[in-house]
Amino acid sequence: MATSTKHDFMAEEKSMDPTTLYRRNMKISNKKKYNQYLEKQRDRSKVYRQNIKNDTQKMVQLREKAKIRQQKFRKRQREAAKTQVQTTTCTSVLKESKPRTRAELGSLREKRRESKKKYRKNMSSHKKAWVRKKDKERKQNKVLSNGSEITPQPEGGFRSKKTLYNVTWKARKVLPSNPQKYACVVKNLVQNTTPKKRQAVEDLMKISPKVQKCDIDLMEISQCEESKELQENMKGTHVQHQPVASSSQQESPVVNESQKEESKTKGVKSIHSHGVTYPKWNRVSPRTESLARNF
């Protein structure tokens, strides 16, 4: 065995260049002299590079040669990678897959989960937005390929009524319970915002059939109340000019007042009785609603 290695070493030395062999022997035998030689070569290379920088024609030639050399090197790398892939695929086909235990699979999943978590943490905001966009496109293409239609989003841009309920509940927790303060806050929210958001609020209030129905009901109530007040005022002026009536006639104003209160309560109830069904979490008192509209 030793004789074969010695024979190989001697054959390698014979194939070497004499200068390379000299430097190699000098590195082994005399390290101090070898370090001096390296220092000398370093200075010579520095002077050579400085001279090349001054000569533009020489620099262009060297760059072209370096470009050709790099292209050849990359070509060799690609060919080596192809051969390596072919050999690995051949060996993987011949090699039998070893079954893993549950503990090994669990540890492998945990390792991949941690690596994916670290990768997502180091992702930039642009990369995250790009991934979300591609994921959305992939899901839409999958739905279209299956033949099912994409369900449009409900009114307001929320995915479901539950999401709208959660957002409304959180906002209502912060808003004041006093009707006047509530109306002031809603007014400032709508007024002190961007033009696009304000326009969206106005469009939603115009389009929504529930809001239109409530507007009509409130107008009807206010008109009924005004007409009844005018009738009572006219009756009061007419009674002043007439003589004093009997006791049954004196009790009529009390009856009129009770009827007036009943009509008010009936009018208020009609807000929720004209085919408009509000969910429990979306109900506002009539007083708060009227204050918000008067603002």
Q: Note the overall shape.
A: elongated
Biggest sheet features: none
In terms of DSSP E residues, the strand content is under 5%
Spell the H/E element sequence.
Answer: HHHHHHHHHHHHH
Mean pLDDT: 75
List the total number of helices: 13
Features:
80% helix, single chain, 295 residues, mainly alpha
Description of the molecule:
- This protein has helices spanning 2-15, 18-29, 31-54, 56-94, 102-121, 125-146, 161-174, 179-191, 195-207, 209-241, 247-250, 252-269, 286-294.
- The chain has 295 residues and is mainly alpha-helical.
- It is elongated.
In short:
With 295 residues, the chain is mostly helical. It has 13 helices and no strands. Helix 8 crosses helix 13 (286-294) and helix 10 (209-241) packs antiparallel against helix 12 (252-269).
List the helices and strands and how they pair.
Elements: H1 2-15, H2 18-29, H3 31-54, H4 56-94, H5 102-121, H6 125-146, H7 161-174, H8 179-191, H9 195-207, H10 209-241, H11 247-250, H12 252-269, H13 286-294
Helix pairs in contact: 2-3, 8-13, 10-12
